[in-house]
Amino acid sequence: MSIGIVACGAIATHIQEIATAKALDLTIYPLPPLLHNRPEKIAGEVDALLIEIKARHEQCAVAYADCGTYGALDIVIERHGVKRLAGNHCYDIFAGAAEIEKLMAENAGTYFLTDFLAKSFHRSVIVELGLDKYPHLRDDYFENYSRVIWLAQEHTPELEQAALDAAALIGLPLEVITVGYSGLTKQVMELLAN
């Protein structure tokens, strides 16, 4: 069965790795990861891409959590009769919603990183917030945070250094929780189940 997946660009490569490992016939249509900086645009972009690809595939799905759309993405999902990944954000997907809820209950001032965000932090956060030009605004942006937790999918020295660098850029201590890909793999397989 031919399956088309509209995916967040931050997890598209991981989904392709899952598809290869599980010998799935998937075509992945990634959207730019920087859409997360403008979540009000995610639903519209997903909608437009689903309209474009639905006739090409026997089944379509959406590899996004809600991602700050506050239900707008679910309206698109319902209109197209497709499924999306569960959760409010990719942190739920990688670590599980219960774990994220527990970590936030322990410390509501937690800033989460994924591997993608650790690698792209300078571009995705520093440049996007203008902190490369106005570094004095850092404390204004991050004053309510007290720690960074890296939800490590692959705990490599390079990624750990990227996570340490990201935490240092915003002046917070780093904690590491290795989560792997099992949560994403489970959700992708559930997404594709009829």
Report on this model:
With 194 residues, the protein is an alpha/beta fold. The protein has 2 domains: 3-85, Rossmann fold (3-Layer(aba) Sandwich), CATH 3.40.50; 92-178, no CATH class. The chain has 9 helices and 7 strands; from the N terminus they run βαβαβαβααβααβαβα. The chain has helices at residues 12-21, 42-53, 72-80, 90-95, 97-106, 115-127, 138-142, 157-169, 182-192, and strands at residues 3-8, 26-31, 59-63, 83-84, 110-113, 147-152, 174-178. The longest helix has 13 residues, at 115-127. It is globular, with a radius of gyration of 17 Å.
- From the alpha carbons, calculate the radius of gyration and give it in angstroms: 17 Å
Domain tally: 2
Instruction: Name the quaternary structure.
Output: single chain
Number of helices: 9
Cα(first) to Cα(last) distance is 11 Å
Biggest sheet architecture = 4 strands, parallel
Q: What is the structural class?
A: alpha/beta
User: Mean of residue pLDDT?
Assistant: 95
Overall geometry comes to globular
Count of beta strands: 7
Q: Low-confidence parts lasting 5 or more residues at pLDDT below 50?
A: none
DSSP strand (E) fraction? Answer: 15-25%
Label this structure with key terms.
194 residues; alpha/beta; Rossmann fold; 2 domains; 4-stranded parallel β-sheet; 3-stranded parallel β-sheet; 7 strands; globular
Concise structural overview:
This protein is α/β, with parallel strands linked by helices. It is built from nine helices and seven strands.
Topology (SSEs and partners):
Layout: E1 3-8, H1 12-21, E2 26-31, H2 42-53, E3 59-63, H3 72-80, E4 83-84, H4 90-95, H5 97-106, E5 110-113, H6 115-127, H7 138-142, E6 147-152, H8 157-169, E7 174-178, H9 182-192
